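Example 76, ligand zinc ion.
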Amino acid sequence: MRKSKTITIERKPRKCPVCGNKVVKIVYGMPGPELMEQAMSGEVILGGCCIISDENGNQLDPEFGCVECGTRFKRK
Ligand SMILES: [Zn+2]
């Protein structure tokens, strides 16, 4: 399994600063058929139904992700 890291950003990057590939939105929750299709074609990343939070209850779920290297981007 590839190790992915999370980078804090101000706004959605057009390209991944690590590998230069496409950066797309990460969608959380149970995906419907439409979302599954978008995920298959690389338009979105499915974040799963569990939203990760730290011990203080702050959500740690990143908003965008690189389709290639798995780097995640979280807005400030
Ligand atoms: Zn990348």
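Summary: Helices lie at 33-40.
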